[in-house]
Amino acid sequence: MLYTRRGAPLSLTPDVLSSMKHMPPAYGVDTIQFLAGPSPEVLAAHGQGGHNFLAIPKTMPLVASNRDPTMYEYGAKPSTDQGTYVTIHTGAALVPPEKYMAIIAALQPDLYVALCDEITHDAKPKKIEQTIKRSAKWLDACLNLHSSHSLEGVSGMLAPIGGGNSLKERSRAAKMVADKPVAGFALAGFATGEAPGAERGALLSAAIEQLPANKIRYMPGMLSPVDLLDCVAKGVDLFDGAFPVQVTSEGYALCFPLQPSQPPPAGQPDVESGVDETKINLWAAAYRLDKSGLVPGCTCYACTRHSRAYVHHLLQTNEMLGEVLLEVHNTHHFQAFLGAVRKAIESGTFAEYHTWFKERYLQQQQPEDLQDAGKSLAEAGKDLTRPVGSGGKRPTWTRSDGDDGKKEEKDQAKQQRTQ
Ligand SMILES: [Zn+2]
């Protein structure tokens, strides 16, 4: 899906999006971000749903998740049976099922995640048990409201499945919703601190084994390409598209090969310029006079028209166009990667593709210094109080949206990369 914040892509305009060769197949929004500014009342008064309000083509599916993968909105206060507390751009807010479903009714998405009592990976057993019970109760409330808002035939619901770090509770939570009249399921609470690989895989399997094979499994949470492939191997079908956006915010251009037949990126990993075999860092002074495209051979708008030197200059001078060009390239590259994954699944060669990609991709982890260049991505799921590239500071809506905050983040990223 295309990642958006409050319904808008971070750097891509509709005309740029429509001209892209690899378009994301769905448009993602976070339901919680429509609690206020715009409120569900404003959306409803505007009419004809989120497609009309956000100027999305009717042919583009709109998917409403229950969380933003780049910042953790839950836990402003402990949830109660009445609803969950979130932090949004206007402050803390209580979200009962009625309010949540009023937003869904106004957005009329093609697919949406029902209200969930979200917890992070470090939640204690008693808390896990309580949130499963509460989420099940809210799911029933959302199903009733789905009918009363006449959303049958308009929107498909995804039932959230919690369970935290417990295999037993993941399995129990999945069994509780497996027979519900929903379009699919959302695997909640992942990428919040669990170890990718074996631990996450076991938790996913515990839930997915209880679910019908013919319904969608969606997993919110920012994932690197290799983590995403691991989740596909476990049976996840749908992901948010936050990874290329976060890479863009750090000034990187993705360059990992998409097929075994493709040569590795030119040049050697370089600690000083923050380069590894998956991405290059355009903040680095090494690109000041580099006339080549971001990634040689790439057919995206940015790579076919502009040089690394120009993008480096735009980042250095805090010109918005720098992030626009990087997001064009990174979205194009990431969607081409997902296209290759879909082809491998269709042709029955996913296992081979997965093995090749994982071995190839993980080569970036040597030497150790290079791990630091991508460490913030790996840490994003562990420390949900900050977005990638923020220098460890807690994000706020004003900082995310305001010029001053952005400049500060860019300056920090610049210093980190050029040290
Ligand atoms: Zn490109």
UniProtKB/TrEMBL annotation:
Region listing for Disordered, in residue ranges: 367-419
Q: Compositional bias (Basic and acidic residues) spans?
A: 400-419
Judging by the UniProt lineage, the source's domain of life is: Eukaryota
Q: Where is the tRNA-guanine(15) transglycosylase-like domain?
A: 2-361
Q: Tell where it localizes.
A: Cytoplasm
Question: What Pfam families does the entry give?
Answer: TGT
Cofactors (names): Zn(2+)
- UniProt record similarity statement: Belongs to the queuine tRNA-ribosyltransferase family. QTRT2 subfamily.
Q: Where does Zn(2+) bind?
A: C298, C300, C303, H329
Details of cofactor binding: Binds 1 zinc ion per subunit.
As given in the record, the signal peptide range reads: none
Alphabetical keyword list: Cytoplasm, Metal-binding, tRNA processing, Zinc
Q: Which organism is it from?
A: Dunaliella salina
Listed InterPro entries: QTRTD1, Queuine_tRNA-ribosyltrfase, TGT-like_sf, tRNA_ribo_trans-like
Oligomeric state and partners? Heterodimer of a catalytic subunit and an accessory subunit.
Protein's UniProt name: Queuine tRNA-ribosyltransferase accessory subunit 2
**Upper lineage:** Eukaryota, Viridiplantae, Chlorophyta, core chlorophytes, Chlorophyceae
Explain the purpose of this protein.
Non-catalytic subunit of the queuine tRNA-ribosyltransferase (TGT) that catalyzes the base-exchange of a guanine (G) residue with queuine (Q) at position 34 (anticodon wobble position) in tRNAs with GU(N) anticodons (tRNA-Asp, -Asn, -His and -Tyr), resulting in the hypermodified nucleoside queuosine (7-(((4,5-cis-dihydroxy-2-cyclopenten-1-yl)amino)methyl)-7-deazaguanosine).
